[in-house]
Amino acid sequence: MAQKERTLFAIIGDEDSVTGVLLAGIGHLNEHQKKNFLVVDSKTQISTIESAFQDFTERKDIAILLINQDIAEKIRPTIDRYNQAFPALLEIPSKDRPYDPSKDSVLKRVQKLAGD
d(Cα 46, Cα 40) in Å, to the nearest integer? Predict the structure, then answer.
């Protein structure tokens, strides 16, 4: 499948973040009834988050994967091993926690390449 067929966003986030994205019209069910979002709360197991991350990063229809930074911290080793261009991985802030650039895996890679 060509890059131009990657047309979807996916999100792994808290309820507020996912709701905002869904209200923007980004929610989608594919032909296998798989969603392009996962709502994470205090009861969500790490294995569920990792499984959703794996699923979203292997799908050929997703261009960008958004993940709340505090949720990314829960699966940081998995996030740090991810090195594909597509889907692009973007860590976003949550309502309760501001964005911390020192924890962003993509920003760390950019700084490493720049020699910082």
Answer: 10
Inter-residue contact 12 to 65 (CB < 8 Å): yes
Return the structure tokens found at 8. 């979807």
Average pLDDT over residues 10-21: 95
SS3 label, residue 99: coil
Cβ of 68: how many Cβ atoms within 10 Å? 24
> How many C-alpha atoms does 102 have within 13 Å on its Cβ side?
0
Whether CATH 3.40.50.10580 fits 3-114: yes
pTM of the predicted model, to two decimals? Answer: 0.84
Check the CA dihedral 17-20-25-28 and report its sign. Answer: positive
Residue 20: φ, ψ to 5°? -60, -45
What is the amino acid identity at position 73?
Answer: E
